[in-house]
Amino acid sequence: MLENTMNEEFASFPQDFMKKPIVIVGLMGAGKTTIGRKLACRLGLPFVDSDQAIEAKSGLDIIEFFEKYGETTFRETESRTIHEILNGEPLVLATGGGAFMNPATRQKIKDSASSIWLRCELSTLLCRVRRRTHRPLLNGQSHRKILKQLISERYPIYAQADITIQSGEQSVKRITDIILEKLAEYSTIQSTLSP
Ligand SMILES: Nc1ncnc2c1ncn2[C@@H]1O[C@H](COP(=O)(O)OP(=O)(O)O)[C@@H](O)[C@H]1O
Ligand SMILES: O=C(O)C1=C[C@@H](OP(=O)(O)O)[C@@H](O)[C@H](O)C1
Ligand SMILES: [Mg+2]
């Protein structure tokens, strides 16, 4: 389940925020999987994507999983999988877009990890979800309509993450740099609050 990672500059001077998991939340197409993998690589930490973990465990891709078991079972499996992944070991976890909406999953993330919301405008999301991959919620309907609805339902909840990063047209490297700066800032504030 854990992907191999490569140590780059951060491994040589570990920071406080590397002592616990870093979890990325946000809507489909925000870049959670792409940025999460890059962030893990920069930090020399393992990377896990909850959708890929579910696929590996079930032997089904996400579309097949939804077709065979339905969304309710997917959500239960997603929550269980994330609880297993967040076992205290430092790593970077990219969640599926619906994971943080589950109250038990959200609580687990809040209690055991630093959470990052990759916030994206609708226009950017629309460009990024064009390819049919693992997103059955987008099947056969207007992507704009569905994403607009999900934005209104989910953004107030994603806002409960510890850190919000506005992710627009910047490169993956630039967004990763911004996350690293914000994480360092956040962990300094946390250590000042609870010495
Ligand atoms: N900063 C970025 N700039 C350009 N394309 C991006 C960026 N971040 C992600 N992408 C692309 O957007 C698509 C969706 O990214 P992905 O990481 O799968 O999002 P998520 O996991 O949030 O659904 C992918 O094709 C990815 O290559
Ligand atoms: O938003 C959602 O409910 C979902 C997002 C998908 O992951 P990404 O956010 O990585 O696209 C995947 O978990 C599944 O299709 C459901
Ligand atoms: Mg993803």
UniProtKB/TrEMBL annotation:
Keywords (A to Z) from UniProt: Amino-acid biosynthesis, Aromatic amino acid biosynthesis, ATP-binding, Cytoplasm, Kinase, Magnesium, Metal-binding, Nucleotide-binding, Transferase
Cross-referenced Gene3D superfamilies: P-loop containing nucleotide triphosphate hydrolases
Coiled coil, from the record: none
Gene Ontology molecular function, alphabetical: ATP binding; magnesium ion binding; shikimate kinase activity
Entry GO terms, CC: cytosol
Known pathway: Metabolic intermediate biosynthesis; chorismate biosynthesis; chorismate from D-erythrose 4-phosphate and phosphoenolpyruvate: step 5/7
Cofactor(s) required for function per UniProt: Mg(2+)
Location within or outside the cell: Cytoplasm
Keyword Magnesium: yes
Catalyzed reactions: shikimate + ATP = 3-phosphoshikimate + ADP + H(+)
Function according to Swiss-Prot or TrEMBL: Catalyzes the specific phosphorylation of the 3-hydroxyl group of shikimic acid using ATP as a cosubstrate.
Family: Belongs to the shikimate kinase family.
Subunit comment: Monomer.
Name the record gives this protein: Shikimate kinase
Organism whose genome encodes this protein: Entomobacter blattae
Lineage, broadest ranks: Bacteria, Pseudomonadati, Pseudomonadota, Alphaproteobacteria, Acetobacterales
